[in-house]
Specification:
single chain; alpha/beta; Rossmann fold; 8-stranded mixed β-sheet; 23 strands; 15% helix
Protein backbone atom coordinates (compact mmCIF):
# COMPACT_ATOMS: atom_id res chain seq x y z
CA UNK A 1 0.00 0.00 0.00
CA UNK A 2 1.18 3.52 -0.79
CA UNK A 3 2.38 5.64 2.14
CA UNK A 4 0.81 9.09 2.52
CA UNK A 5 2.90 11.83 4.10
CA UNK A 6 1.39 15.17 5.13
CA UNK A 7 3.59 18.20 4.55
CA UNK A 8 3.19 20.69 7.38
CA UNK A 9 2.39 20.34 11.07
CA UNK A 10 0.04 23.19 11.88
CA UNK A 11 -3.70 23.45 12.37
CA UNK A 12 -4.45 22.70 8.71
CA UNK A 13 -2.35 19.54 8.89
CA UNK A 14 -4.60 18.12 11.61
CA UNK A 15 -7.63 18.77 9.42
CA UNK A 16 -6.02 17.16 6.39
CA UNK A 17 -5.09 14.13 8.48
CA UNK A 18 -8.78 13.69 9.36
CA UNK A 19 -9.78 14.02 5.69
CA UNK A 20 -7.29 11.30 4.75
CA UNK A 21 -8.61 9.08 7.56
CA UNK A 22 -12.19 9.63 6.35
CA UNK A 23 -11.16 8.70 2.80
CA UNK A 24 -9.58 5.52 4.16
CA UNK A 25 -12.81 4.64 5.95
CA UNK A 26 -14.68 4.86 2.64
CA UNK A 27 -12.02 2.96 0.72
CA UNK A 28 -8.66 1.94 2.10
CA UNK A 29 -6.25 4.01 0.02
CA UNK A 30 -3.08 4.85 1.97
CA UNK A 31 -0.90 3.85 4.83
CA UNK A 32 -0.93 7.12 6.80
CA UNK A 33 2.66 7.66 7.88
CA UNK A 34 2.74 11.07 9.57
CA UNK A 35 4.05 14.58 8.97
CA UNK A 36 7.14 16.34 7.75
CA UNK A 37 7.71 19.91 8.89
CA UNK A 38 10.46 22.33 9.80
CA UNK A 39 8.27 23.91 12.50
CA UNK A 40 4.85 23.11 13.91
CA UNK A 41 2.73 21.64 16.66
CA UNK A 42 3.36 18.60 18.84
CA UNK A 43 1.56 16.16 16.59
CA UNK A 44 2.42 13.14 18.69
CA UNK A 45 0.58 14.65 21.64
CA UNK A 46 -2.30 16.07 19.57
CA UNK A 47 -2.96 12.71 17.87
CA UNK A 48 -2.68 10.74 21.15
CA UNK A 49 0.50 9.08 19.98
CA UNK A 50 -0.87 7.89 16.64
CA UNK A 51 1.29 10.08 14.39
CA UNK A 52 4.66 11.81 14.61
CA UNK A 53 6.71 14.35 12.74
CA UNK A 54 8.92 12.07 10.66
CA UNK A 55 11.53 14.64 9.73
CA UNK A 56 12.13 18.12 8.36
CA UNK A 57 11.14 19.34 4.93
CA UNK A 58 14.61 20.75 4.48
CA UNK A 59 16.27 17.34 4.85
CA UNK A 60 13.54 15.08 3.42
CA UNK A 61 14.01 13.06 0.24
CA UNK A 62 10.96 11.20 -1.16
CA UNK A 63 10.89 7.44 -1.70
CA UNK A 64 9.11 5.67 -4.62
CA UNK A 65 6.32 4.22 -2.45
CA UNK A 66 5.26 7.59 -1.06
CA UNK A 67 2.57 10.12 -1.96
CA UNK A 68 2.24 13.58 -0.49
CA UNK A 69 -0.31 16.22 0.36
CA UNK A 70 0.59 19.75 1.40
CA UNK A 71 -1.38 21.00 4.41
CA UNK A 72 0.00 24.54 4.60
CA UNK A 73 -2.80 27.08 4.26
CA UNK A 74 -0.52 30.03 3.46
CA UNK A 75 -0.19 30.18 -0.35
CA UNK A 76 3.40 31.42 -0.36
CA UNK A 77 4.60 28.85 2.15
CA UNK A 78 2.76 26.11 0.30
CA UNK A 79 4.37 26.98 -3.01
CA UNK A 80 7.84 27.17 -1.46
CA UNK A 81 7.77 23.71 0.10
CA UNK A 82 5.84 22.04 -2.73
CA UNK A 83 8.34 23.19 -5.34
CA UNK A 84 11.22 22.07 -3.13
CA UNK A 85 9.75 18.57 -2.80
CA UNK A 86 8.69 18.35 -6.45
CA UNK A 87 12.29 19.04 -7.43
CA UNK A 88 13.25 15.99 -5.35
CA UNK A 89 10.70 13.77 -7.08
CA UNK A 90 7.72 13.91 -4.70
CA UNK A 91 4.33 12.90 -6.07
CA UNK A 92 1.42 14.99 -4.76
CA UNK A 93 -2.15 13.69 -4.83
CA UNK A 94 -5.57 15.26 -4.47
CA UNK A 95 -7.13 14.90 -1.01
CA UNK A 96 -10.89 15.30 -1.40
CA UNK A 97 -13.25 14.56 1.45
CA UNK A 98 -16.00 12.02 0.64
CA UNK A 99 -18.69 14.61 1.38
CA UNK A 100 -17.28 17.17 -1.06
CA UNK A 101 -19.38 17.78 -4.18
CA UNK A 102 -17.69 17.90 -7.57
CA UNK A 103 -19.71 18.76 -10.65
CA UNK A 104 -19.15 16.32 -13.50
CA UNK A 105 -17.80 19.14 -15.68
CA UNK A 106 -15.41 20.87 -13.30
CA UNK A 107 -11.63 20.53 -13.58
CA UNK A 108 -9.05 20.00 -10.84
CA UNK A 109 -5.29 20.35 -10.97
CA UNK A 110 -2.87 18.26 -8.93
CA UNK A 111 -2.31 18.48 -5.20
CA UNK A 112 -5.77 19.93 -4.49
CA UNK A 113 -7.18 19.69 -0.96
CA UNK A 114 -10.96 19.88 -0.41
CA UNK A 115 -12.50 19.94 3.07
CA UNK A 116 -15.80 18.30 4.07
CA UNK A 117 -18.92 19.71 2.39
CA UNK A 118 -16.97 21.93 0.01
CA UNK A 119 -18.26 22.11 -3.56
CA UNK A 120 -17.08 22.98 -7.05
CA UNK A 121 -19.67 23.91 -9.65
CA UNK A 122 -20.16 23.31 -13.34
CA UNK A 123 -17.17 24.15 -15.55
CA UNK A 124 -15.24 25.65 -12.64
CA UNK A 125 -11.48 25.13 -12.65
CA UNK A 126 -9.20 24.70 -9.65
CA UNK A 127 -5.51 25.05 -10.40
CA UNK A 128 -2.66 23.07 -8.93
CA UNK A 129 -2.30 22.93 -5.13
CA UNK A 130 -5.48 24.87 -4.41
CA UNK A 131 -6.62 24.64 -0.77
CA UNK A 132 -10.40 24.68 -0.50
CA UNK A 133 -11.91 24.66 2.96
CA UNK A 134 -15.62 24.20 3.72
CA UNK A 135 -16.95 26.55 1.07
CA UNK A 136 -18.66 26.77 -2.31
CA UNK A 137 -17.06 27.59 -5.64
CA UNK A 138 -19.78 28.34 -8.18
CA UNK A 139 -20.07 27.65 -11.90
CA UNK A 140 -17.39 28.89 -14.31
CA UNK A 141 -15.07 30.09 -11.55
CA UNK A 142 -11.32 29.90 -12.16
CA UNK A 143 -8.95 29.55 -9.19
CA UNK A 144 -5.22 29.97 -9.79
CA UNK A 145 -2.41 27.73 -8.54
CA UNK A 146 -1.63 27.73 -4.79
CA UNK A 147 -4.67 29.81 -3.84
CA UNK A 148 -6.55 29.27 -0.57
CA UNK A 149 -10.29 29.75 -0.09
CA UNK A 150 -11.25 29.57 3.57
CA UNK A 151 -14.47 28.25 5.11
CA UNK A 152 -17.95 29.67 4.56
CA UNK A 153 -17.03 31.82 1.57
CA UNK A 154 -19.15 32.47 -1.48
CA UNK A 155 -17.17 32.54 -4.71
CA UNK A 156 -19.92 33.24 -7.22
CA UNK A 157 -20.28 32.62 -10.94
CA UNK A 158 -17.44 33.45 -13.32
CA UNK A 159 -15.15 34.88 -10.66
CA UNK A 160 -11.49 34.62 -11.61
CA UNK A 161 -8.81 34.28 -8.93
CA UNK A 162 -5.14 34.57 -9.79
CA UNK A 163 -2.27 32.61 -8.27
CA UNK A 164 -1.54 32.57 -4.53
CA UNK A 165 -4.75 34.43 -3.63
CA UNK A 166 -5.93 34.08 -0.03
CA UNK A 167 -9.66 34.44 0.64
CA UNK A 168 -10.36 34.56 4.37
CA UNK A 169 -13.39 33.15 6.18
CA UNK A 170 -16.92 34.27 5.27
CA UNK A 171 -15.89 36.47 2.35
CA UNK A 172 -18.22 36.87 -0.64
CA UNK A 173 -17.04 37.55 -4.17
CA UNK A 174 -19.85 38.66 -6.47
CA UNK A 175 -20.14 37.33 -10.03
CA UNK A 176 -17.77 38.27 -12.84
CA UNK A 177 -15.00 39.97 -10.85
CA UNK A 178 -11.29 39.26 -11.17
CA UNK A 179 -8.74 39.06 -8.36
CA UNK A 180 -5.07 39.41 -9.27
CA UNK A 181 -2.14 37.25 -8.19
CA UNK A 182 -1.08 37.44 -4.54
CA UNK A 183 -4.16 39.38 -3.40
CA UNK A 184 -5.64 38.97 0.10
CA UNK A 185 -9.39 39.14 0.77
CA UNK A 186 -10.13 39.84 4.44
CA UNK A 187 -12.58 37.87 6.59
CA UNK A 188 -16.21 38.82 6.07
CA UNK A 189 -15.44 41.06 3.10
CA UNK A 190 -17.89 41.58 0.25
CA UNK A 191 -15.96 42.06 -2.96
CA UNK A 192 -17.98 43.90 -5.61
CA UNK A 193 -15.21 45.10 -7.91
CA UNK A 194 -11.95 43.79 -9.35
CA UNK A 195 -8.96 43.47 -7.00
CA UNK A 196 -5.49 44.27 -8.31
CA UNK A 197 -2.56 41.92 -7.87
CA UNK A 198 -0.81 42.13 -4.52
CA UNK A 199 -3.66 44.11 -2.92
CA UNK A 200 -5.26 43.52 0.49
CA UNK A 201 -8.95 44.37 0.76
CA UNK A 202 -11.29 44.35 3.75
CA UNK A 203 -14.87 45.37 4.54
CA UNK A 204 -18.31 45.61 2.99
CA UNK A 205 -17.89 46.71 0.31
CA UNK A 206 -14.26 45.62 0.29
CA UNK A 207 -11.70 48.41 0.01
CA UNK A 208 -7.93 48.41 -0.22
CA UNK A 209 -6.12 48.53 3.11
CA UNK A 210 -2.36 49.07 3.35
CA UNK A 211 -1.17 46.97 6.27
Amino acid sequence: MIDLIIVGAGNAAREVLQIAKDINRERLTWNLKGFIADTGLDMNDLTKGDFNILGTIEEWFPEPNEEYTCAIADPFGRQLVVEKLLNRGAKFVNIIHPTARLNDYCELGEGVVMYPYSSVGSNAKLGNFVFLQRTDVAHDVSVGDFSTISSLCGVLGRVKLGKRVFVATNATLVPNISVGDDAYIGAGSVVIRNVKAGTKVFGNPARRVDI
